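Notes, p. 3: input format for complexes.
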Amino acid sequence: MQAQKKKLFIRTFGCQMNVADSEGMAQVLSDQYLLTDRPEEADIYLINTCAIRRKSEEKVRSLLGSLKALKKRRPQLILGVGGCVAQQEGDRLLGAAPHLDLVFGAHGIYRLPQLVARAAAGERPVDVELNRRFPDLPPRSWESYPAQTFVTIMQGCDNFCSFCVVPYVRGREYSREADDIIREIRGFLAAGGLEVTLLGQNVNSYGRGLREPVAFPELLRRVASLRGLQRLRFATSHPRDLSDELIVAFGELSALCEHLHLPVQSGSNPILKAMNRGYTREEYLDKVIRLRQSCPGLALSTDLIVGFPGETAADFEQTLDLMRQARFDQAFSFKYSSRPQTRAAAFPGQAPEDVKAERLARLQSLQDELTLAAHRRLVGQIREVLVESTSKRSSRELCGRLRTNQVVNFHGPQDLMGRLIQVEITEAHPHSLKGRRVETPPPA
Ligand code: SF4
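Output follows (444 residues plus iron/sulfur cluster):
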């Protein structure tokens, strides 16, 4: 008789990379542990952390403090902190939280089985070693990913933007062999998968140091040609490394979704320079124009930082102006927060909190207008939707995503989950759309 597996709970903070890393944690521990969504029944409780902003780091510390009570009730529970905060803090975390059993950095994920065994034996291991090559992973089980998955294609970043902690906590760039990526995606498609998102900190520079050099557009073409793949996405792109070939690919590859996340961060040239982003606003906007020429229905999302050190009112106006010109469909915007080790932490002209808050509110209000205008243009259209979940607002509604990445809610039976269907867009809201399922595909 097979031994019953123990239970693993993972709390994930941060970006899609972290979501993929949490899947990696479950994967490497899957021989002995089964994922649960109930922390109170877990034998291992892992927190996968994000250090990109001070606020996300504070949330992790507060959660860790609140878990003291659980650990007291269940002393056999193994409590671990992984990811970027763990990489940054190392054994300082053990000192700050005596109820913590295990600390593992961005790449310690792959050594989790050994680390967990050491923690179970009473050690308090800390593993913040950074890899230089992509580790061999056990094959993934696709049972819980019927329609969509993330596939990590590279790790780390060599760009050293002056505000960003990633190169310090995730290490230097390295890519995964193309054949391994293709093999993993083939397995997913054979299990009925439909949508793949290729992930990396800067996917556009994929390919460095591989046995067989493959540039990112070539990898995209190989993946897009796989039988059964309906939707292909990728994140994140650095605007400087967005090549002409990649721009052309948006007009040519039918599986490649008409959506691109292209973080601009600021619309002011002096601020972009201080951020060490490696492009100007003019170069960014030129790429946007060429992308829309190559793929006319392309939706564009971005990341923006307000209140970077030295940002003047005029710099901020330049950002608003760039947003209007680029007509972003969506933007993830944040107040600048200084991060340890980064160059910008020591820059003069750190902006006061109230200035940052006021700028963020103005920027978000402009983005709400732009998003709503983009949503209104969709009303009356029939679009393909991949059904992802039940809606947050009502259990009787389903929720899915257009190829252009907008979220749409509509009534329908649960058995549509994980399927591609046609939906007529009936209402535009600032953060989502409402629709009605239609049975027939739209005319060609
Ligand atoms: S490109 Fe810049 S912002 Fe993005 S991960 Fe690298 S250093 Fe950070």
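The longest strand covers residues 382-390.
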